[in-house]
Amino acid sequence: MAELGMESNRLYREIYIPGVGSNKWKEIALNTGASASTLQDIKVAESCGGYTYKHVSVTASFTRNRFIYWKAVGDVLELIEESLDYDLYGSKVKFHFQDMAILGGVSVHESHGWVVVLVPTVASVHRLVFPHPSKLHRNEPGLGIPDQPVPSVFLDASITKCMDVRNTHMLNPAGTISCVFTCASSFYTQEGEALFALGNNSGNILLVKLPPLGMQGIIQQFELCQTSVMQKLWTGLVPSIMRGGQEPVHTVSSLMIQQVDGEACIFAVCKDHRLRVWSCKSHECLHTCNLLNFVPDNLQNQPPSGSGHTIRKMISVNAGDVKFGVHLNFQTSNQLCILQPKVTSARLQISQVASVYGPQDDLIDFCMTSSVLVSLWTSSEGNQVVRTLTFGDEGPGSWLEVLLEPPELSDLPIPPHRDPREVYLEKLFEPGAFSREDIRKALNLQVYSRSLDQNVIGEASLHVNTLRQDVTVAVETEIRSAAVDYEMEEEEYYQLQLEQWTKFYSCVIQYHEVGGKLKGLFCDSVTGQVGLIRKGCVTYLRPCDPVEEMYSGQPNTGPDGFMMKLSLQDRHQRRDLELLFEGLHSVAMEMSDDLSAQFEQELTNNHNLETVATQLVHNIILGHNTEYSLSGGDSIPVKLGMIHDLYGSVNTVLKYLDLSLDRNDEQILDEVLDRRRQLGLNHLLTSGVGVSVLSECVQQLASTRFNMLRDLYLLQTAALRHCNQANISHEVVQGFQNELLPYTASLLRAYQVVKWASQTLAVSTQATALEMNIRQLSGLDVSDSTALVNAAMGPSLIQKIEHRGASLLELFILGCGGEKMRTVLSSDRFLMDQPSGVWSEGLLTMATALATLIWPLSEETVFPEFLVGYCQYLPLQFYVSSLQHWCEFNAASRCFWQGLAYLHFDEPLKAAQCFDQAREGVTSEAFLRHKLLQTEETQPRKLEVLYYLKVIRQFEEYSAPDVVISLARNATAIADEDDENLPTLWSKVFKYQLELGHNSEAYNAMIENPDPSRRKDCLRQLLICLCEKGDLQSLVDFPYTDLQEEVENILESRARCMDLTSYNYYDLLYAFHIFRNNYRKGGSVMYEQGMRLGREVSGRVGLQRQAQCYLAALNALRLVRPEYSWIIKPAPSARVNLGAGDVHMRSPKHALDGEELNNNGSKFEILELHDIEKEYILVDARLRLLAREEDPLLAAGSWQGADEIVGLLVKAGMYDRAIIVSRAFDLPLNTVFESLALRCVNLAKNSSYHMRGDNDYTAEAWGWLKTNNLTLSNISTETSSSDEAWQLLQQYLDRYEDGTAQYHRCTANKLMAHGFALPAWFINSYKGLNSAELLRLYIDHDLLEEAVALCVEYIDAVMDTFSGQDCNLFQLKGCVQHAPLTVWLPYTSIDLLMAALRDHRQDLQIGNMYQSLKDKMTIYMGKVHNISEHVCKSQHHPMQSLW
Q: With a threshold of 0.90, does the pTM exceed it?
């Protein structure tokens, strides 16, 4: 018996996992051509089984925790591959063997990179070949991409591969059936041959051999029987219908093919209670064994023929260790025998290893490992029962009934304050309760489906949110249909609602029960995994925790038992604990489901636990007659009185249940982990199924311990009530009241939290909320060791929450909880030394480690950190509230997390209160000090200030300025004067006061800031903000104590770097200076603005603003004393053309081409009032030109000089403005007069002498005439524009002509150049100024007649002066007394004129003019001669000296 192991007799519990994976099936129909009419009447029982992959290393293997299970129903074979470490896709396939029922005996094998599935049917055998997982996965174990599913071996299954003739064989090609196959078995040899053994109703066995894969060969078929040759012929030739319907006694009941000593053998259990062993090589019967020899004497007298015998091979790690179990089914009893074949002296012998009676139930299936036998039974009441049997050194133990998932009750207890819809929905979608398929099937009932959207099908219909919505709509529709009246009483509606929800819930339970019917078993000897194949899913068995075994009333006395775990050697202590657990078991028997739910609800509502327990104890425990038993045993007080050390026993149990006493974080964190081992555990139980297994295991662990602690609390309460009857001393009573009862209450509530985490669905969160949460947490800048860092939800997590629904614990396992749990496990070598520890020990260890991470009675904070990191704020609020009144650990940290939750739900005021309360724990709690603050600071005040800064950053993310101000003020109130963070806090106050528009408060916060640089920054922000808001009055009114110069510099800097079209800081700066009576700086500012406007802003608006700036500058400077009314012209910056951002990137020493800038010898230009006036005149002229005519060139950029402006003004007819510009810049007016003269000529040419008013052409001249200052008094409606133009010209000549007659000359030149006669007023005016010049002009333009007339007239005027007469026309003065050279004539011009006339005197008119001029000159010369003689005589000079 030693080879069967040293396992203790352990109790097992089922881990029920409803459908988790995808519901997509690949269906393949295989038509072998068999006769449907012949085969369709053959009925074969349903069968199922499983196979776990072989793996070299448990800690790092793609095949670890990976298995295939199948179900055969009729001609359909369902193959499902499942992995607990990796999510698989394409893992479900259905094979339809048309009209060929599948026999039991399907087997799965691994061979040379292939997975081979052998399938025997009633008419054929098949070998289905799929690639091995090692071929599908190229990465090394543990290095796979997270959240990415891996392909299943069934992914590429196709009908082409499955119908290969080398892998399929028809047993009756002709289509005739002489016998019916009733059982089968299959095997895959080391050589690669596929063996099929099929037992028929004639007592024979058909052996079929398929050649190895990839090798040529024929398919062989042999019939194995022990009869004579004639019997063989008779059996083969005569059909069974002619031989009679009675089966032979040696008909095979069950088959198994197993390799013994290198040779494949068929083990056949026959109806005659004999075991026959056949060689697959020689086809001979090697051994026949009477199985009745292995049963007790009282069972040996059995009928010669029996039915229902079953044989199963034992799954062993050692391939050479061949054992099998045979179940002998008799009419009144049954027996299980463990047998072992051995080859001794070349002969096969069967020896008995062990045998045990079976229970009086019907066996459905069983499987075996080297130490445990697991069996499935049907009781006489029709209930399915799973029992285990453990083998040890002392032989087989007793049958232990597995704790299966209890059936769901159709009536749920509804708390008085809750709505039935809420309770039933919560139960329907509780993690691990019902599969989504069962809920959808209930909804597909006609009574519910009519109210649903029929377009939602497939996977979309199985989404949790869709199901929840459909369930609500369907039931609410039924409630409305069942309501007789539209108005009803509240109680009546409540009962109607309860009735309809109960009805739907019952439908779901029915489908749940059908899908949960057990079909078979499979096990793995390597990992200790045991699977229960149900109709709708597969579940798993795990060994119970020692305390579970004790609480269930089936204590384990082996090395894994509770007593051995506690190392209790004293028999009195052991007996005390046994009695204590008996008392707990008695209390548990009295707690109904309703009472348990009521107790838990009271605990959830934070009611007084002592009051609740006292009431329960009075009603259900002490309400019984204490002299009699509660449930067939001694009463509670009697049992308690039998315990010697009641205090010590209770304390021992409590310490065992306290998870905080099992941790050694420092050792785990400080240990250097083996990377290979860590990689091997990275994917341990990380698939959807694996996570559900872990979650369910934790839930069961927490629920069991919660119930036990509840009963222990009630037991202690009962002991206090009847301490005298139980002989409990006063010291023990005091110990219970002061220590154990509070300790028990704390553990009870702690396990309730763990239980809640495993039963609460995670909240589905929108992508925007997730992004906001990530942004919020990034602002905390917490330590990398926290669960808040890199907590982004991957695609698999989002799919699990939104599509399938996931509990908080499952999400925790997939995230940081699973990672940390595996880190703990990697420090232990149990997975390296004991491969089977994955299920036998590792699962409980992992569950305990996970529960410890959630355990609230410790400083561990990874679970609430996970809730925050994964945006589970609703569960976080419940978590915090449930711990608020009793848990002393991490109280301040919980306030901090509660604040984060309030922030997420946009309740900043509540969040601020929570954060303020959490401040008290920054010096004592590890999370706040080491993970959040991450500082070595020890002073409490500085720690609190740092904490406030972290919190303020959160409110800044959520745009809550009022809260930021409040928190910052709190921080400044507690901060020391030398705290380096004080300037930051005042800056925060300033910033958000300014943001709220509290300008005065912001100014005061700026003044309070002790850091000059920060104060300057705040000042800059204040000025900019006030400018942008337009609150310029406040900006100017603030006193700016000791900051006035900074204000000026900031405003000047902003003004110079800002675009003038966006905001005008110059006006603000001007107002700032004027308000403080600094007119000179105000004028300088406005001039600088005007100068920049001229360079940078084009268009009429820019010119208007420029003109206004110059005017403002002039006004300001005129208010200054004359000796100070000057400014320094701002030097044009070398960076004018750069943007605001480029200014700071430009080198101050080098130009863009790399040449060094010469900054030495900078010169300043002084500007006085008249300089500014000149620039204003130019700008004003351009504005007037633009008002006259829109010309883009006028408004674009700056101009070269005034002469260009004058030209444009003259062109536009704005002669007044042209004259003003010319006189301001000392320019001659020639251009003005020439242009005006030309306009007069054109107007005159287009006018008629007799015309009164204007025509179309001349009317247009009024446009430019009106732009000039016409001051003539004779303007009337009958005056033409031509007349006005001539009058304007005359006015200008009268006003601006100097003594040189330069403007008359240029005007005359222009008029005569266009052949226009000089007006009389012009000639008269010119005569008075310079008649000689007029004569020359006449001569130059060949106007001989006018020249002769002018000469004659001038000579006459000169001669008149000789007589003392004045000539006003020529501005000549008469004189009586003549002196030498007092009379002058333009002799040169006259000589030229005379010469020209003389040359053409043959012309009569010219001759007359010549003669008249000559005569006039003769008269003049004679008169001059006489006068000259007279003068000479009077002065005694000779005449010759004068001529």
A: no
